[in-house]
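note to self: dont lose this again. the chain is below, predicted strucutre after it. 205 aa total, dont forget to put it in the shared folder this time
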Amino acid sequence: MNIDFIYFDVGGVAILDFSKTNKWNKMLNDIGVNPADVEKLNTLFDEEEPKYCVGEKEADSFIPILKHNFKLKLPADYSFLEDFVNRFERNPTLADIIKDLKGKYRLGLLTNMYPKMLDMIIGKGLLPKVEWDTIIDSSEVGFRKPHPEIYKLASGMAETSADKILFVENSKMHIDGAQKLGWNTFLYDPSDVAESNRKLLDLLN
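---
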């Protein structure tokens, strides 16, 4: 495989977020959501979340919805966004791999984020400590995966042909969007980091 540029997703790849975990339900339980209300809450969040990903709203705008619809008594300084990020973890073995790849390939991040989330993740030291060649944050550019425009933007910023781009991503839907532009892709499984890392290295070698 002749690759010039590798894009990594952030949540579920470069860091370990809520993907394939029970952290979301644990978070809801911690803030006092009644289990009987979880389905209703998930529906409301699914309606609002796309607006966060394209920067139309802050994630903390969900707090009034939580208070009004579920009668939650949250601390005055509670941040929905910070509660999210505080539950994220480093992916240290992949971080080591990314550091080794830095001398061989140009590297970037292509991620669906909420406003201020990526800065918070960086501030907490969760990402691999490398100098990224480009970072595309959906909340900054106004398009989220799998919208074609975010891949077109990423292709241009990679400054190479589509067949020399590899996208490491944990969502099949987002993989499909990249493949439509002719990118190479690798579906990363955050529930089996060791095996995903092995397969990624096999692919690159």
